[in-house]
Amino acid sequence: MSLLTVKELTKSYQSGKVAVDYLSFTLNKGECLGLVGESGCGKSTLARCLLRIEPINSGSIYFNNEPIESLNGRQLYSYRKKLQIVFQNPLAALNPKLKIKDSLVDPYLEYAKELNLSYFSFTSKAAFVKQLLEAVELPSSLADRYPHEISGGQQQRVTIARAISIEPELIVLDEPTASLDVISQRAVLTLLTELRETLNLSYLFISHDLAAVNQMCQRILVMKEGHLIDEFNRRDLFDNERHAYTKELISIY
Ligand SMILES: Nc1ncnc2c1ncn2[C@@H]1O[C@H](COP(=O)(O)OP(=O)(O)OP(=O)(O)O)[C@@H](O)[C@H]1O
């Protein structure tokens, strides 16, 4: 069943640059869909359009069959609760003045009135923080630290814990491991896969790293210069029918 449907989406900037050009795809419920492409191909622009941070020029985006362009006020607030994002740079995503425990409860407090959690439960702030830290395999002793007092891998686990804390339907992972060393990258990808299964999440996993996408995703989209040029099931990655550009990406992976 379709969770997110993007139809003929075009987004250009004032400079005239067409960053996303007539892009169409569907993400199914429970799926991890990979989106790969080199730097500048339009991946982050697409993510910002999905979050309604950037207005689109034409086309449509449907979430649970509802067009998101027409959402405003309360409906937009509700939509944002269902879709969370994890960015490349966790330090930039965390408020430097907040202790980890305060950052962790922030999304919950923002959406508390509308939330009906099924996996986590908020009985007290301390208990909620403990559940979240456990879910992302961090020691509870980190709760009282500030973001700059923990490692990059730990910071990214905190941003993941924030994203899952309100049990969204979809998480956009925008190069979530790009700033991490290889060991932490692997651990975070494994964690994300486990969380998807436990919490019944769906992911749009954006990356320039075909190896990471191949590890995580059931289906893969390939973008080049704003266009979608290839789309296939993971098992067909090495199929001879792949687009020449996909083969080029394979050769460097
Ligand atoms: N605010 C903006 N104004 C004008 N052009 C922009 C803006 N943001 C992005 N672009 C341009 O749009 C194109 C797509 O950029 P985008 O950041 O979406 O690519 P990307 O695939 O996410 O790249 P990266 O992997 O480096 O993050 C690029 O040519 C970029 O220079």
UniProtKB/TrEMBL annotation:
GO terms for biological process: transmembrane transport. Signal peptide: none annotated. Residues 4-250 form the ABC transporter domain. Coiled coil: none annotated. InterPro entries: AAA+_ATPase (IPR003593), ABC_transp_ATP-bind (IPR050319), ABC_transporter-like_ATP-bd (IPR003439), ABC_transporter-like_CS (IPR017871), P-loop_NTPase (IPR027417). The keyword Transport applies. Keywords: ATP-binding, Nucleotide-binding, Transport. GO terms for molecular function: ATP binding; ATP hydrolysis activity. PANTHER family: ABC TRANSPORTER, ATP-BINDING PROTEIN, TRANSPORT ATP-BINDING PROTEIN. This is Peptide ABC transporter ATPase.
